Amino acid sequence: MPRLLSLALLAVASADLDLANWMGQLAPILGDATLLDLSLPGTHDSMTYDLSDTLSDGYEGMSAATSAILHALTPGLAGRFIRKQGQTQGITITEMLEGGIRFIDFRVMYTVGPDRVAGGKDWYCLHGCESKRKAIAYLREVRSWMDAHPKEVVVLWASRHGNVALTGTAQYPGTTPAERQAFFKQVEDVFGELLMENVSLNETSIVDLQRRNKRLLWFASDYVESTRSSPRAADARSIDNQLKGGGYGREFVDFAKQGGSKLRDDRARNQFLLVSMSVGPPTPPSKMLRSWSSCRTSSEPTRNGRRSAQRPRKCRT
Ligand SMILES: *[C@@H]1O[C@H](CO)[C@@H](O)[C@H](O)[C@H]1NC(C)=O
Ligand SMILES: *[C@@H]1O[C@H](CO)[C@@H](O)[C@H](O)[C@H]1NC(C)=O
To answer: How many CB atoms lie within 10 A of CB 68?
Structure first.
């Protein structure tokens, strides 16, 4: 199947592949391919294009107290600097979807809004700094886009810092299950009938998902508490998250050569293979300068200081 599929993809690519509607366009040749058979282009730390200058609460590797102090200080101090270190994306989530991206690495945390020292908390996206808007606002954008593109299937993975396994307050420090569940309730309200419910990923064809309009897969870290084991979400522990050293070098090439059989092994175990081209596992802020993530989509300085104006880089998932 994968070989046939790539030949078919080539055939379509030589005609006019419409990136905004590629899943719909490919439907006639997808046969019984499931979501676990395709390579979905994805973005890493997807929401970092819209960060404020305020450090988020609960940032990886920092105590709650330090984080709270920095939250108050960063806009005037190092916020701008930290924001730039944390930015991996330069186009909006709608532009990503429009450009063919179908996997979104959605980092969220419960925190006081940007540029406020105190007050009520809500869920914001983060990567060091927190997003300008509430997380739910970006999800509404995804929903509108999906309504306008009725055959596209989108996978979102919610976590605080890209960890599939941590649960409870280890995943989302300083939060209660009720606060986490309230966020998932908002997610359910936004996506409604689009949410895949009781879907076995390795046995349900994409064509079937399109036909039944079950087009949004919500992977949740801390699945049991955050979603109360909802049938409308999937446990992030079924993501096989492979970090292979930045998408280059020996380790990555060796891995990529085995990609096909790895994909099949994972499908047999109902695991969603995610191949990250980020340079490494989550790093604490002290090492943040080195943690430049790949999949940059804008013209940003590279690690050695040169600028590269590249087209959006597709990370396989
Ligand atoms: C999904 O499974 C749950 C629990 O088994 C059940 O209550 C629910 O009705 C199912 N939903 C659908 C759409 O089959
Ligand atoms: C799907 O995954 C389950 C494990 O959750 C496995 O038992 C089953 O054989 C898999 N199906 C296919 C078609 O690979």
So the answer is: 19
Q: What domains are there in the chain, each with its CATH number?
A: 2-238 (3.20.20), 241-309 (no CATH)
Torsion of CA 280, 283, 287, 292, to 10 degrees: 50
Q: Is the CB of 269 under 6 A from ligand 2?
A: yes
Strands 51-55 and 129-134: antiparallel
Angle CA(19)–CA(209)–CA(91) in degrees, nearest 5?
Answer: 30
Nearest atom, ligand 1, residue 198 CA: 1
Instruction: Give the closest residue (by CA) to ligand 1 atom 6.
Output: 231
Looking at the CA of 229, name the nearest ligand: 1
Mutational test site, ligand 2, from 264, 270, 272, max ligand atoms within 8 Å of CB: 270
Report which ligand 1 atom has the smallest distance to the Cα of 197: 13
Residue nearest to atom 7 of ligand 1 (CA): 231
Q: Which of 106, 45, 97 is nearest to 300 (CA)?
A: 45
CA-270 nearest atom, ligand 2: 2
pLDDT in tens, the chain (317 residues): 444 455 455 555 556 889 999 999 999 999 999 999 998 999 877 777 667 667 666 665 555 666 665 555 555 555 555 555 555 666 889 999 999 999 999 999 998 888 676 778 889 887 767 778 899 999 999 999 999 999 999 999 999 988 999 999 999 999 999 999 999 999 999 999 999 999 999 999 999 999 999 999 999 999 999 999 999 999 999 999 988 776 677 888 888 888 889 999 999 999 999 988 766 554 444 333 322 333 233 333 333 333 333 333 333 32
Least distant ligand from the CA of 264: 2
| Cβ of 1 less than 6 Å from ligand 2 | no
Q: Residue 242 corresponds to which tokens in the numbers above? A: 């492979």
For the chain, helix, strand, coil in percent to 5 are 40, 20, 40
Atom of ligand 2 lying closest to residue 203 CA? 13
